[in-house]
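[Automated response] Your request has been received and processed.

Submitted sequence:
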Amino acid sequence: MKRTLTMNLDDLKLKLAWQAAFELRTCPDLALLRVAQADRHLERHLAVCPSCRETRALPEAELAAWGVVREQFLSLAGKGAVPEKTAGQVWLLDSSLAGWTEDHSFLRPPAVLLLERTPVGSGWRVAQIYSDRALMWHGDVALSERFGFAQAWNCYTIKESLLSNCLGVATEGELRAVEAAAAVDHEPAQRDSPIAFFRQLEVQVGAQISLPAVLDLAAEYERLAPPSHSEICQRIFGSVGLAVQALKGWGWSVPEVSRLKGFAPFHTPEESLVESLFGLLAAASPPSGQAPMSAAGTAHTLPVNHVRSARERALGVEPLLARINLEQWQGDGYLVSGDLASPFDHAVQVLASLRREDGTQLETRYLLKPGAANFLLFFEGAEEGESSLERVQMLLVSHE
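Generated structure:
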């Protein structure tokens, strides 16, 4: 009886912790709740959120007391001289990232742990942080009591200018532990559990928060005039004919090669169109029995071919499977985030394209650092009707 009661209390504490996390991540702060005239976003939020309705209905004196507590908390944010940014620091993200979402939740930016600078552009790879250790699970790393824990499974890139206030610094051991945990797979939380719901919310928050950084850093990267996907592949294989020869020599099946991008277009939809060398390599099929299998319970996966090269010479192609954690049309483009089954010990280029309704391709790319397995792709300009995984092709390219 005592053991059952303890388990029930633990379950209750976990559910309450999840409820608090949901409110912290999706509810507006007091300043917005106290406005005299609610706008349409707040009205719709209040219609579905009893907690915010109760808070808005509190007497003015009680609301003012909560405001004092809020100001005291903000005073701990390390305002004053801005330190030079280094790995291991914990930062609040800029308040400009906060705002209403399409489902009338109010997204509030989290604190993050700086892991490393991006090799190109003014970005940082970060791990998201949450304060209540009751929601820790495999892949989480405890920091000091002041910070809570770092989510090594929830890392992404943020633009440096969006780092607002430095809260302090994690220890060297904590930083190394986060980096090590980010490099391996972890046991997933039980389905439909508070931990599973919390992690889904945290991934969504991270994706929404990091999207501006992805766009800005992509613009910086594009200013360096990077080669197209097919140009990267051409440096390795030389030509479509040589690529087909190599693939068939390794026992792979290739789609019909009839036209390349830039030549006369197809006129019949039945033809198998390979628009580029990239498309050929991404669409090639491995020998029978070598295709990776999806794990049980995996909702969304995407087949990915990994081209290995050395000194711009092809060494082989390996069939892999990417697990898709989030795919969502954002209004100005299509966001896809996911991870590979295991990280690489060297840098890997993720090349991806989205086939548009008019037959053209939207290209994007992502650089996987050594030890990283998660990726974030954004197809800027994609329309809602064409934002689908069925239209996406991915290719990994590594130089050994």
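Summary generated for your ticket: The longest strand covers residues 313-329. The two ends are 60 Å apart (CA to CA).
If you did not submit this request, please reply to this message.
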